[in-house]
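Q: Two folds, back to back.
A: First:
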Amino acid sequence: MANYDIYGQGLDICPANYEPLSPLRFIERTAQIHPDALAVVHEGLRRSWAETYARCRRIAGALSARGIGKGDTVAVLAANIPEMFESHFSVPMTGAVLNTINTRLDAETVAFILSHGEARVLLVDPEFAELAERAVKIARGRDILVVDILDPSFEGGARAGGLTYDDLLAEGDPDFAWSMPDDEWDAISLNYTSGTTGDPKGVVYHHRGAALNALANMTSWGMPHHARYLWTLPMFHCNGWCFPWTIAANAGVCVCLRAVRPEPVFRLIRDERVTHFCGAPIVMNMLANAPDALKDFDHPVKAMVAGAPPPASVIAAVEAMSIGITHVYGLTETYGPSVVCAWKTEWDALSGEERARMKARQGVRNPALDGLMVADPETLAPVPADGRTMGEVFMRGNNVMKGYLKNPSATEKAFRGGWFASGDLGVMHPDGYIELKDRSKDIIISGGENISSIEVEDVLYKHPDVMEAAVVARPDETWGETPCAFVALKPGRVLVEAELIAFCRLNMARYKVPKTVVFGELPKTSTGKIQKFLLRDRARALG
């Protein structure tokens, strides 16, 4: 009998039953259903969803009238301010691609990004006007329209362009008839990697991945409707882990914050009744060690933390403030968090130490990720799920990038056998949860033994005087490499190298104990991650 598919006949795609996925529908829907609901808070400014949507349409209309459309790049150099939030909708409404630039980069790197991404427009926060002006001059040959964002909450700052954001608003139509992408595979944003080993790579996101990861943020975090989200995570970083689009889908409140410091964070949590925020472990550590007088809010808050696991002592201190931590993991190439430590109710009965150990694991794939494995990087054979055998973490799914802009060789190297190779090393536990052990470049090989810097750092954080710690390899004639610890102490504390090494000997195998301890402030990225590549340079310079 012939194989005849009855479901393949006369059931075609048409406008009535199919539309490309895009997060642009989120803001349209929320503005229609909740027009008067609060959308944006910034200092004394408060705007509704109807006002925010109208502003996005006006900017989109003005950019479109100036010839910006599909295939064009619009760059933004700004802090977490309302205009940065709006750009996540206004720019793709024109069909163009949004490029949010790390505000802590030097002018030469910003110039490279503007040139490589072929930016036609640059929106500039007054705080970064001087940086923008220098970068545009370096990027000679590019005709870039520079638009100044006039943020009244920022004192000082110069003008970098001849046009303001308000000028663009005045040019635009609040009823601008924007359109959805022709294809959900169309690019929506461009994000550049840190470029610590050369020029940064341009990671391209598509509308489908942005929409799905935004929704996955809500489901994997259990966000209630109208959540109040505080911007402690830079919006330029992986498009704020897709949370601008998440907030729109959630009909939530976008609470803007220019600089992350304990006082404004706790004040906004209290005064704006913030329910959710994200950040690196260093942000949690900063809050945990803030003066008790600042911690005066009286409602539960959820915090999402990514990357290396926060030390157990930090998790315990943060949760003692009624801030529940959810650990996530991802890369720029995976739209930010694509793996989540999904909490199980049976873990509620565990001791504080056991709960912290569970929360320190990176977890399982979020609802948008199709596959997650720890495997041999050469054969792609999964390692045993024993919590001990180390391999490389691989992902695949809708929230994996399109690829690297104008870099097919790097794209080919990243995609192996139908998987994205993360470059991170970890283990798979018997329950299917992964746990990172290190970046492949951060593993310390001492006398033929692999030492996880994360494991050593976790012990260092247990010392009551340690505020921050990072461990890297130091070249050694006998052992090849030995662990070198860089440590920042809590204010007013005094500790010497011998004392900390003795503490480590009591808490870990002797071959893992740091042979060197360097005290002082640790260099960090704009997202609060410790810059280990700089520490590796320092360790090599020790001789």
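A: Second:
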Amino acid sequence: MFLLFLQVFAICSLVAAAPSRRANYVVHERRAAEPVAWMKTRRLGGHNVLPLRVGLAQQNLHELEDLLMSIAHPDSPTYGQHWSPERVAAHFSPSEDTISTVKDWLTTEGFRGDRIRVSPSKGWIDVNATVSEIESLLNTEYHVYTHPSGHEQISCESYSLPDHIREHVELIKPTVHFVHRVPDDPALLRKRSKTHLGAPTQSSGPKTNGATVTEPMTLTNCDRFTTPECLRRLYSINYKPAAPQLNSYGIVEFTPQAYLANDLNLFFRTFFKNQTQTRPKLVSIDGGVVQQKTKSFSYNGESDLDLEYAMGLTDPTPLYLLQTGDLVEGAGFDNWLDAVDGSFCTFDGGDDPTQDGIYPDTRPGGYNKPESCGIIKPPNVVSISYSQDESTATEHYAIRQCNEYGKLGMMGSTVLYSSGDFGVAGNGGVCLNANGQPVPSGGTKFNPSFPATCPFVTAVGATQINPGSTVQDPESACETVIYSGGGFSNIFPMPSYQGSAVSNYLVNHPPPYSAKQYNNSGTVRAYPDLSANGANYVVIIDGKLELVYGTSASAPVVGSIFTLINDARLAHGKGPIGFINPLIYNPLFSSLFHDITKGNNPGCGTPGFSTAKGWDPVTGVGTPNTTLLLTKFLSLP
């Protein structure tokens, strides 16, 4: 992601002095994880200037879950009555009291009114300030951190606010947010993709074991070759769209990841002959481009996989490719959210420079235009096959983003995230130490995935057809090449919709682990919510048939199923299904999923959690039966 390096400038000569302790100041945010391999080398000079941005607390957020349940719960009299973006923005925007309180605080601290700027959405207050000013304001110290590679970045370990100000502030940037990945030269495209959260790599993208397809693919060998026809049989997908012009399905990809047109052509000629030459509708977000310069599994695997199956299963529904980030800087999760909800945009982007792309990008070849803010209506279903470890996100950053997913649900969008491919471990098999910090080896504490742990998204795990089994036999949790990500959040409380299901699991199938290994309080968000096959996908990448594995495959397939269900509702004059979690956990829906009762999700030196009857933290409520779900959803208002 974009790093806030030492790209600061001096406007006057000020002496850097340690800030004095202040009365009534309380720590507001602390760095989520200490940097591995980075060394604190020196204090940042007090004369340097930073673009300080104060994220204002939104009003009525305490109502978000209840409001979302009133729209998404099948027993609610207002089920399906989604809000307009304008209504959502007005209901949650920061209050005038919050704006004036924070401005008065800054003025009292010596910042003139002409230095203070409020964003158009009223979500942020922006002021350029020297390091000395900020250190005094936030009761903190900024240091320069240096990596053995020579790269540097700045950060503080924590910052504090007056007690009466804290309720008006969500987070302040730049402060504690730290990029733990080592950045490469942004001009080197191949190296660049390995540094960004929003990019599939060996850790966060689809996996391959190098196997090739050397025999005919039929329904008799779906245990070795997962094809569209295998998925149709597994999940009873036999609905043909009747109102595609009313529907929309979005797939998020992050530049430089890109599909290859010839790969789509060859895949469609093989499995969907009437779709040859079909392309997704490109939505370029912050200079997003379908690059063709660099071609390999690492660059084309995710996009080819997502589009080949999503387009094939939902044809002729319009599929929108939300291609996010330019070739120089890239992008993160906040960037695509900006594009579908203008109220999420703020002055200078409102995004986190340690996680997201900041636009305009004035560097050579960068997207030197205003950020893509509210450029497209949120698609009815959005599938995202990327993740970061929850431990690398500060609580304030994760909660702010999670609330945005709740707002999209209120507007009628179903947002799906893959749950991860390393079982109870984080990307790359990274686990946490006793202090909850990620460590390269020796960690024994489970490392949950974000955004999958956000209670306002639908997290998708992975299953597989067991060797020697058929599409008629029960699946198990995926244990071939990858393990279905699942577990319990260290940030988010348990949402009301999953309380009964999770409690049932913990009481009747108590995991053999203590609080030293996972959050076993029984009061936190658990994931995944449901699953689909994630093994042996036949995908054409760079002109070759390859076998691909991962929840990266599961998510777009589940998205395709709910896109078809939306089509049926729209054809009957009804609205899209929106946020589905309260429905899939409802007892009336339990028989509409194939319960998965075999398999585990190992990691961190343990067998992980086990599957069980009902919901479990490996495969959720199970895999979908499209025909039964479609009938049930059509019965709702």
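Q: And?
A: The longest strand covers residues 48-56.
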